[in-house]
Every structure is written in structure tokens, then in C-alpha cells.
Amino acid sequence: MAEDIHQRTGECESLRRVILRLLHERGVGKTICPSEAARAWSPQDWRKHMDTVRRVCFELAEEGAVVITQRGKVVSGRPARGPIRVALARPRELDAA
Predict the structure, then answer these.
(1) Between 31 and which of 51, 64, 84, 85 could a Cys-Cys bridge form, CB atoms 3.0 to 4.6 Å apart?
(2) How far apart are CA 86 and CA 1, in angstroms?
(3) Strand pairing class (31-32; 73-75)
(4) Are 77 and 62 in contact (CB under 8 A)?
């Protein structure tokens, strides 16, 4: 059981790095679809990982690292149903300007 938890933790950290790398490559103000991260992380069987990818995206949003959008509007994450997009959160200094 403990091994399973450590394996999932390692997988989530790996997935977090993939999501953030894709977002940084795309740039501030641009979005990715969670399926892009799933494909980059596990090209052969990406579909089976979509729930995990969305969960990690929501965790990143709760931490303030990313924002989740639907139809161009920021949503609160976990309650979001249907297609979502993920973007880097804008630094607070830019919001205040």
C-alpha cells in the first residue's frame, strides 16, 4: 500500500512538471488542453490518464500556479465539467498594474 502511494506521488510530480513545462513553452496568456499534457506524459495510453491529469491541473490551480478556464472564463476548477483549458497564472504584479 505504501509503495502504491509513493508511486502515485512520483507520477503526480512527473505530471506536474510536464504540465508546467508545456505551459511555459506556450507562454503567459496561452492555454493548453489537459489532453496535450496527457499525450506528452503517456503517449500510448494517454486517455486512461485524463482523470489524473485534470486532478493535477486542479491542484495546480488551487496552489495559484495555473488558472482553469472554460469558454475563455476562469472557473473554480474541481466543479468544472466538460472541456477545460489551463493557463499559467499571471504574476500578481501584472494584475496590479
Answers:
(1) 85
(2) 32
(3) unpaired
(4) yes
